[in-house]
């Protein structure tokens, strides 16, 4: 069970207070109506499944109800950082490819 | 029976407190301080179970969690049955009742034993897969008898008589294991002021120090244990948890500890005390001081009762004052185990010989053996045990220097006990739980914990440090280090020391060779609990199972409730040798939680029965209960399902409720519908983006129905949203969908449109909602309000008004889920019951009838109103529902779902579309889920057209009605489809409009 830092509450809390919401940094296309079926299909269904660094959205569901991002290693389950919506991660696959 | 093996002096048992217990239907006596295992050995009980596959008699071999054979069913009553209890970890108490879990029909005559003696050669690994799989249908029959014959324990057939609980804790340092290492570590950490939890699985803390005759600084080791525990118990910030197994080491230093609080006191826990507790601990730092398990050597017939692990024999002698036999043969590959022979001799029993596999070895231990006059057989091995229900001899033979083959003829030593030691395997299970790969260490001759990402330290035997002095020192150091890392600067405490005897290099020996090759030799057991032999592992590698994980699964090695604590390393070594690989090349299997079996009670804690899940009640709940309502669960809510009158069947109650509503007036408790308050200057635009229809022009005082879709265009929720003010709306959602909808709204607001000024919050519980519906609804309401003009032209359908109802401020919505004239009255929740009762006071003359969710479903189905989640299933878009009127495609923002429902597959012909269905025979109510076909006589596979989503008997229409999806259904009005049912009937039905009653909507337009 994860121990997750909520960047809005400023505290570590048990995973039971949070819900995972999937891959982070997936912007909704600006003009959905102009997307091809393939483009829209990619936005809807296709997700990364990296071995290592993964950026994902969590929500502090039984807390402040804020959505935020988590950088997590999918092999070790280590959480490298939590950061607010709109912020950029400090740990990325590019700068931490070994973990 | 008397305690024939009990020693007159020594041990930590209390001879003044005899305890009487039962095993296998017989009464025995032991002493306070005995485990069930030590008491049985004291009483000379050799056979405690029958083996899994070959049904061979088995005895106690170990003294701790690693015991594979003495695993019992406990419980004096049906309600207190516990399976899988290791006798080595269970204290005895007066009235304890234990049963062997194997041996059918009974321990002494065993059907499988006879069977497998004759057919033993026909039980190779994978036997069950190979034999019982065909014909597949018969597996259920086989399984019943295999399980019974194998003996896996059983769960109680009645409710557990005890309670269990959970405790959530944080700590600075969690130390696992209270042997010398763990105790020294706890001292260092505790003196630094860190919060410490020290957990140990045995009844008494001290580990090996309780069973050693080593002295610490000239004092008995047990005295140091006592002084240490006394000091630790004096600290408020230290928690000592004996009888508490750290069973799981999970992500981010979360550990679960299974504490057996009363299992040593009585069959059932004393009143008001929970029997077991699961500690859920988040630790800043963890120190594993879990010690090591001694490996027995593998040799022929090594499972005959009387074959034991060397250190266990010492433990029984020194800690429990039990010498489990008369004449001992000790077989070892290392010096340390010589102590067992010395303990045995000092207990006044005969040591027949020490058999040491090493050829050239001489040192302090060998000198001591010679000084004691013990026969020392070097370069030899016990290749086979003799005996049936008890050892009566050991076959000893000369080995070559590598221990690969027998080079001399064997001779038989007369003995009743064979103790063996192949070295020690670090108990690194918890380290493995976190995903850490163990690393082979040639010096240790075992796997040690590997690299970890957890905040974890290891010390003592689990780290491959085996001597007592070093364990104490390392424990003190690592304890201080853990405390410092957790923020408590600390120094290692000074630890006592003992005289150390230098040890000669041990030999890496796992399986003692036999004169015959392994496949022909007497069975050499590797895993006692699953009956895996050396020959079986070799056969598995010959059959092509090269990965150790595959060997494990094919042979079932390590599959028992002991998880192969004794046998796994031996098994891996045998597999490696058989494939001509090294052990590190072969690798190891990974231990997973739990370390030892945990009761379901401890896992569930208080989260069972009424406390399993929160229950939510409306403000009028008590009224419903008094009226005798039947309830159904909707999400966590308890909703009235229907209100039967005495003697009424469910259908009779529904018919009455449906008719009364359409004839006069009915009332529904709608409080559970989700209500979300939405405010802000962008609230209106926000609604336009999350709903499929238009919201730009909805005036204050008006309500509108809306559909919500996901990005894929599929409907997932619906409800009415009302405009309370220019920048203020109240949205309603389905009862079950409320939390999900709010989270979804927040998701879009926070991640996609953070620039929008909109705020939302749940107000579901703030309001009590009662819906009155029927031709007399207006008359009834008019008697309870004098400040709301109910006139049909001033308070129109889909309007809402603020006012007073029954003297209470109320929001009244003229909306309808029944097609009748209908008002939804919302009042502050704590006034709910008052208003509800006032309505009944005035409603009696109109035959005001309460109805539940089932009548609500029927009435809405008569009107063709959908229920999201029942008539939709995530593959249905608004056009499939025939609800294009609820989609406004020309909104400026591409609302959620718009692009999705334009995908190629969503706009094709012949999609499943929602239609009404009338059975040809109006009395038949189709089962929901029934599949439509065009031709019931079509050969299999029959093309399927769709299924029934809602189906009821409608008293108002005097016939059954159904909604369902049918491929291309909107263009098939009037056509016939067939529903073949599981009972063989085929029901013919006509496709029709979803609106069965009042298609023009005249009933609500009054």
UniProtKB/TrEMBL annotation, chain A:
Return the InterPro entries for the record: SoxD, SoxD_sf
GO annotation, biological process: tetrahydrofolate metabolic process
Offer an example of a GO molecular function term for this protein: sarcosine oxidase activity
Q: Which Gene3D superfamilies match?
A: Folate-binding superfamily
This protein is called what? Sarcosine oxidase subunit delta
User: From what organism does this protein derive?
Assistant: Saccharospirillum salsuginis
UniProtKB/TrEMBL annotation, chain B:
Q: Which residues form the FAD/NAD(P)-binding domain?
A: 172-428
**Tagged with keyword Transferase:** yes
- A molecular-function term among this protein's GO annotations: sarcosine oxidase activity
| Any single GO BP term | tetrahydrofolate metabolic process
Occurrences of domain Aminomethyltransferase C-terminal (ranges): 912-998
Query: Sorted alphabetically, which Gene3D superfamilies does this protein's record hold?
Result: 2Fe-2S iron-sulphur cluster binding domain, sarcosine oxidase, alpha subunit, N-terminal domain (3.10.20.440), BFD-like [2Fe-2S]-binding domain (1.10.10.1100), FAD/NAD(P)-binding domain (3.50.50.60), Probable tRNA modification gtpase trme, domain 1 (3.30.1360.120)
**Keyword check for Transferase:** yes
InterPro entries in alphabetical order? 2Fe-2S-bd_N, BFD-like_2Fe2S-bd_dom_sf, FAD/NAD-bd_sf, FAD/NAD-binding_dom, GcvT/YgfZ/DmdA, GcvT/YgfZ_C, GcvT_C, GCVT_N
> What are the UniProt keywords, alphabetically?
Aminotransferase, Oxidoreductase, Transferase
Q: Name one Pfam family in it.
A: Pyr_redox_2
Limits of the SoxA A3 domain: 522-606
GCVT N-terminal domain span: 620-891
As for family, the record states: Belongs to the GcvT family.
The entry's protein name is Sarcosine oxidase subunit alpha
């Amino acid at each position: 069970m994860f121990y997750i830092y909520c960047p809005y509450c400023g505290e570590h809390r048990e995973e039971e207070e949070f819900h995972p919401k999937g891959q982070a940094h997936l912007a909704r296309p600006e003009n959905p109506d102009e997307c091809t079926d393939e483009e829209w299909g990619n936005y809807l269904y296709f997700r990364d499944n990296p071995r290592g660094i993964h950026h994902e959205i969590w929500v502090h569901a039984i807390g402040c109800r804020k959505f935020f991002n988590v950088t997590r290693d999918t092999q070790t389950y280590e959480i490298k950082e939590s950061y607010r919506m709109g912020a950029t991660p400090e740990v990325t696959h590019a700068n931490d490819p070994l973990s | 029976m008397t305690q024939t093996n009990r020693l007159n002096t020594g041990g930590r048992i209390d001879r003044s407190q005899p305890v009487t217990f039962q095993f296998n239907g017989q009464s025995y006596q032991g002493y306070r301080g005995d485990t069930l295992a030590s008491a049985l050995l004291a009483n000379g009980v050799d056979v405690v179970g029958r083996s899994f596959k070959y049904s061979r008699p088995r005895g106690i071999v170990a003294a701790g969690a690693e015991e594979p054979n003495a695993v019992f069913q406990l419980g004096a009553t049906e309600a207190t049955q516990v399976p899988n209890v290791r006798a080595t970890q269970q204290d005895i108490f007066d009235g304890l009742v234990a049963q062997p879990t194997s041996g059918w029909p009974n321990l002494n005559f065993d059907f499988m034993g006879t069977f497998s003696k004759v057919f033993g050669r026909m039980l190779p690994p994978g036997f069950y897969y190979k034999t019982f799989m065909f014909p597949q249908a018969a597996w259920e029959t086989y399984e019943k008898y295999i399980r019974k014959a194998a003996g896996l324990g059983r769960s109680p057939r009645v409710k557990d008589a005890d309670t269990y609980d959970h405790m959530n804790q944080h700590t600075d340092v969690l130390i696992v294991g209270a042997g010398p290492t763990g105790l020294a570590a706890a001292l260092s950490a505790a003196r630094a002021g860190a919060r410490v939890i020290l957990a140990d699985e045995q009844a008494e803390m001290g580990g090996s120090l309780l069973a050693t005759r080593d002295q610490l600084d000239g004092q008995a080791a047990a005295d140091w244990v006592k002084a240490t525990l006394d000091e630790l118990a004096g600290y408020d910030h230290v928690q000592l948890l004996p009888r508490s197994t750290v069973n799981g080491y999970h992500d981010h230093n979360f550990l679960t500890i299974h504490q057996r609080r009363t299992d040593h006191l009585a069959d059932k826990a004393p009143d008001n005390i929970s029997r077991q507790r699961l500690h859920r601990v988040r630790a800043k730092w963890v120190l594993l001081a879990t010690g090591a398990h001694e490996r027995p050597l593998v040799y022929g017939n090594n499972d005959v009762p009387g074959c034991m692990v060397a250190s266990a024999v010492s433990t029984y002698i020194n800690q429990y004052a039990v010498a489990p036999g008369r004449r001992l043969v000790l077989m070892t590959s290392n010096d340390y185990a010589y102590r067992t022979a010395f303990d045995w001799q000092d207990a006044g029993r005969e040591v027949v010989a020490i058999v040491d596999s090493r050829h050239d070895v001489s040192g302090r231990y060998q000198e001591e053996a010679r000084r004691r006059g013990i026969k020392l057989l070097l370069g030899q091995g016990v290749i086979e045990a003799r005996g049936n229900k008890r050892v009566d001899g050991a076959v000893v033979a000369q080995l070559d220097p590598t221990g690969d083959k027998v080079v001399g003829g064997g001779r038989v030593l007369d003995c009743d006990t064979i103790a063996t030691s192949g070295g020690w395997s670090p108990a690194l299970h918890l380290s493995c739980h976190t995903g850490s790969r163990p690393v082979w260490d040639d010096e240790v001759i075992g796997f040690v914990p590997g690299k970890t990402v957890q905040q974890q330290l290891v010390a003592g035997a689990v780290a491959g440090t085996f001597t007592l002095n070093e364990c104490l020192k390392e424990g003190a150091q690592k304890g201080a280090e853990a405390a410092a890392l957790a923020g408590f600067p600390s120094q290692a405490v000074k630890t006592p020391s003992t005289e150390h005897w230098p040890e000669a290099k041990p030999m890496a020996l796992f399986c003692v060779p036999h004169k015959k090759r392994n496949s022909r030799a007497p069975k050499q057991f590797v895993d006692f609990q699953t009956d895996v032999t050396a020959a079986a592992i070799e056969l598995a590698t010959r059959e092509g199972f090269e990965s150790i994980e595959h060997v494990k699964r094919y042979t079932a090695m390590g599959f028992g409730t002991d998880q192969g604590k004794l046998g796994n390393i031996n098994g891996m070594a045998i597999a490696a040798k058989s494939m001509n690989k090294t052990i590190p090349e072969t690798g190891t299997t990974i231990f997973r939680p739990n370390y030892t079996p945990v009761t379901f009670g401890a896992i569930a804690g208080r989260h069972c029965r009424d406390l399993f899940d929160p229950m939510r009640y409306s403000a009028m709940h008590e009224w419903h209960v008094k009226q005798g309502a039947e309830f159904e669960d909707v999400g966590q809510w308890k909703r009235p399902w229907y209100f039967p009158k005495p003697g009424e069947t469910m259908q009779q109650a529904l018919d009455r409720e449906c008719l009364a509503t359409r004839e006069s007036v009915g009332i529904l408790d709608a409080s559970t519908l989700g209500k979300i308050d939405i405010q802000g200057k962008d609230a209106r635009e926000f609604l336009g983006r999350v709903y499929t229809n238009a919201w730009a022009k909805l005036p204050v005082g008006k309500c509108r129905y809306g559909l919500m879709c996901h990005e894929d265009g599929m409907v997932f929720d619906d409800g009415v949203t009302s405009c309370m003010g220019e920048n203020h709306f109240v949205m309603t959602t389905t009862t079950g969908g409320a939390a999900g909808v709010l989270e979804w709204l927040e998701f879009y607001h926070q991640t996609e449109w953070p620039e929008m000024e909109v705020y939302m919050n749940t107000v579901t519980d703030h309001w009590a909602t009662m819906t009155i519906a029927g031709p007399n609804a207006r008359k009834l309401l008019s008697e309870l309000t004098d400040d709301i003009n109910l006139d049909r032209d001033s308070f129109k359908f889909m309007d809402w008004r603020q006012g007073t109802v029954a003297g209470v401020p109320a929001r009244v919505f003229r909306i309808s889920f029944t097609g009748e004239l209908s008002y939804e009255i919302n009042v502050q929740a704590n006034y709910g019951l008052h208003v509800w009762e006032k309505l009944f006071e005035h409603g009696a003359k109109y035959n005001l009838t309460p109805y539940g969710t089932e009548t609500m479903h029927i009435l809405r189905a008569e009107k063709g109103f959908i229920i999201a989640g029942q008539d939709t299933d995530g593959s249905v878009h608004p056009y499939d529902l025939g609800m294009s009127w609820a989609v406004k495609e020309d909104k400026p923002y591409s609302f959620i779902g718009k692009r999705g429902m334009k995908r190629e597959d969503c706009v094709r012909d012949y999609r499943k579309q929602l239609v009404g269905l009338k059975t040809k025979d109006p009395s038949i109510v189709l089962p929901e889920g029934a599949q439509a076909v065009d031709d019931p006589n079509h050969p299999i596979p029959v093309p399927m057209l769709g299924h029934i989503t809602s189906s009821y008997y409608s008293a108002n229409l005097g016939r059954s009605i159904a909604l369902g999806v049918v491929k291309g259904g909107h263009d098939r009005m009037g056509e016939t489809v067939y529903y073949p049912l599981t009972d063989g009937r085929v029901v013919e039905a006509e496709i029709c409009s979803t609106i069965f009653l009042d298609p023009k909507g005249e009933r609500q337009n009054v």
